[in-house]
Design goal:
six-stranded mixed β-sheet, alpha+beta, 6 strands, 3 helices
């Protein structure tokens, strides 16, 4: 069992705010709120996608908040999505910087006429956070796709 130690209220507030940042990312994705999703990142953010988590070469690498627009807009091709967040861990935390890891099962529904297809992607993220003007933002987000399952739905 892990041993819990007392932490300062300010650290507890920062940890909660970072968890809410991770949750807001999933919430915006499922609501197709690309602008809201983009607002969670710094202007000079670094966003990297590894479609195969075991491949050291990224599938996509972006270097600004504006560059995220087509990535988030791409979710519009799905009839619906639902991102289930799993465990998240703060790996390091100071007053204005942090790192963490978060897990997610991302469900993507495609509908073509009578045909419905579900794609589930098991993801994990390695994040760098920065606190700017009292708000926590993603400074870097590395998205790793661990596996994908596709299946027809009735």
């Amino acid at each position: 069992m892990s041993k819990h130690i007392a932490i300062a209220p300010s650290e507890a507030a920062d940890r909660l705010a970072i968890r809410e940042l991770v949750e807001a990312y999933a919430h915006c994705a499922d609501r197709r709120d690309a602008e809201g999703q983009m607002s969670l990142f710094t202007a000079d953010t670094h966003f990297v996608v590894y479609m195969n988590a075991k491949d050291p070469v990224p599938s996509q690498e972006l270097h600004s908040r504006e560059a995220l627009a087509p990535v988030f807009a791409d979710l519009n091709k799905y009839a619906a999505t639902m991102h289930f967040l799993g465990q998240s861990t703060i790996l390091s935390l100071t007053a204005d910087h942090g790192t963490g890891e978060a897990y997610c099962l991302a469900h993507h529904l495609t509908v073509e006429g009578e045909k419905r297809q579900l794609m589930i992607a098991a993801l994990h993220y390695y994040d760098k956070y920065v606190k700017i003007n009292g708000a926590w933002l993603f400074a870097e987000r590395l998205l790793y796709v661990d596996w994908v399952e596709e299946r027809p739905l009735s």
